C-alpha cells in the first residue's frame, strides 16, 4: 500500500489556488481537493509551474479517472463522471506506483495532517 502526505484545499480560495505558483512538490506529497457533494468542474495548469497528474475520486473512495495537467496550460481537464474529491500529485506518481482507476483511496486525518493510502 502506497501512502502520500496531503495538503488539503477545502475553502473556496484554497480550491481555486491549488498548487499554483509552486516551484516543486515533494515526491511523497500531494494536494487533496475536498468538497461536499458531487462535482463535474475541471482543473487546469494556469499559473502552475510543475507537471501534475490528478486522480478523481468518487464518494466510495474509488479512483474513477486519472488525467495529466500541463504546466501553465489553460486547457481544462475533466473527469469522465462526477467526483467528490481529487488528488493532485507530481506527474508520473500514479503510473510509477501502479495506481489505476478502480483502486481505492483511504483519506486518513492525524491531528493536523492528512494522508492518502492507496489500495487495489
Write the layout of secondary structure elements.
Elements: E1 2-9, H1 12-17, E2 29-39, E3 52-57, E4 63-69, E5 83-90, H2 93-96, E6 104-110, E7 113-119
Structural class: mainly beta
Task: Assign an overall shape.
Answer: globular
Strand order of the largest sheet: 4-3-5-2-1-7-6
Q: Could you tell me the mean pLDDT? A: 94
CATH superfamily: Protein of unknown function DUF192
Looking at the structure, the CATH topology is Jelly Rolls
Word description of this protein:
The protein has 120 residues and is mainly β. The chain has one domain: Jelly Rolls, CATH 2.60.120.1140. 8% of the residues lie in helices and 45% in strands. It is built from 2 helices and 7 strands. It has helices at residues 12-17, 93-96, and strands at residues 2-9, 29-39, 52-57, 63-69, 83-90, 104-110, 113-119. A 7-stranded mixed β-sheet has the order 4-3-5-2-1-7-6. The longest helix has 6 residues, at 12-17. It is globular and about 30 Å long.
Question: Which descriptors would you attach to this protein?
Answer:
8% helix, globular, Jelly Rolls, 7-stranded mixed beta sheet, single chain, 2 helices, mainly beta
How would you summarize this macromolecular structure in one to three sentences?
With 120 residues, the protein is mainly beta.
Amino acid at each position: 500500500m502506497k501512502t502520500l502526505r496531503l495538503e488539503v484545499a477545502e475553502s473556496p480560495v484554497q480550491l481555486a489556488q491549488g498548487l499554483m505558483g509552486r516551484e516543486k512538490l515533494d515526491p511523497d506529497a500531494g494536494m487533496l481537493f475536498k468538497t461536499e457533494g458531487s462535482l463535474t468542474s475541471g482543473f487546469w495548469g494556469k499559473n502552475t509551474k510543475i507537471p501534475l497528474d490528478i486522480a478523481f475520486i468518487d464518494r466510495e473512495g474509488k479512483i474513477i479517472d486519472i488525467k495529466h495537467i500541463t504546466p501553465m496550460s489553460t486547457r481544462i481537464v475533466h473527469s469522465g463522471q462526477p467526483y467528490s474529491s481529487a488528488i493532485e500529485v507530481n506527474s508520473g506518481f500514479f503510473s510509477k506506483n501502479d495506481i489505476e482507476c478502480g483502486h481505492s483511496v483511504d483519506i486518513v486525518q492525524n491531528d493536523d495532517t492528512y494522508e492518502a493510502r492507496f489500495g487495489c
